[in-house]
Amino acid sequence: MAYQIGDSCVACGACEGGCPVGAISMGDGKFEIDADSCIDCGACAGTCPTGAIAQA
Ligand code: SF4
Prior knowledge:
Blueprint: E1 3-5, E2 24-26, E3 31-33, E4 53-55
Antiparallel strand pairs: 1-4, 2-3
């Protein structure tokens, strides 16, 4: 299962550069992970200052 960004996202962008496949982009008020591109590596989860990223 892909990782997902939850409602505690403050749209800081800290995670975006941490994704090796570029699956993270700005969405509607928060960042989003493209589930089809995500390879489930977990690299982004540690970059989020609010802990908003978790495995779905
Ligand atoms: Fe990108 Fe890995 Fe996070 Fe998926 S789990 S969005 S591939 S950094």
